[in-house]
Write a structure and sequence with these properties.
With about 150 residues, this protein is mainly alpha-helical. The protein is built from five helices and no strands. α3 packs antiparallel against α4. The chain is elongated and about 85 Å long.
Length: about 150
């Protein structure tokens, strides 16, 4: 159980660290340039999606969907709260400096990127037949095919 919580914490920390790096790049490198800031933010969301796709692919191979999906959801929620509330404070802004629209847009974009990445990873694992359920069904069919048929005498 400790390993499970550690994995959730590490994933949340990595997702938050990506956001912190993106915010620092925007703040110190391109302060006031909205076009570049938008591109860095887009890159951050793509990177978060790719990381979650890889995590979903790897975790889907080892554990049932219900287990790892809850872990990913917990890590995403923790990282999102840190990103939206703590991230702006690290560069000297207020979480609500851009108004309610910007605040909720961050939440929706973050959830969209994480959901898309997780879905892609899981769907690739499922399409390749490498997810936990497909492997369990494969083992079951091999086991049933390996047994000789029962002879019924009448």
């Amino acid at each position: 159980m400790d390993r499970r919580w550690r994995d959730i914490g590490v994933l949340a920390g990595v997702l938050f660290a990506i956001n912190v790096v993106a915010r620092l790049i925007i703040h110190f490198g391109f302060d006031g340039e909205d076009t570049v800031a938008d591109r860095v933010s887009l890159g951050m969301f793509v990177l978060i999606g790719v990381i979650l796709a890889v995590v979903a692919f790897l975790w889907a191979r080892r554990r049932p969907l219900g287990e790892w999906a809850a872990d990913v959801a917990g890590a995403v929620l923790v990282a999102m709260v840190l990103t939206v509330l703590v991230g702006p404070l690290l560069v000297g802004d207020s979480p609500f400096a851009g108004g309610a629209g910007t605040f909720f847009a961050q939440i929706w974009l973050y959830l969209g990127a994480t959901l898309a990445g997780t879905l892609v990873g899981y769907l690739v694992a499922t399409a390749l037949g490498l997810d936990h359920r497909s492997q369990s069904l494969k083992r079951y069919t091999e086991l049933k095919a390996a047994k000789p048929p029962k002879v019924v005498r009448r």
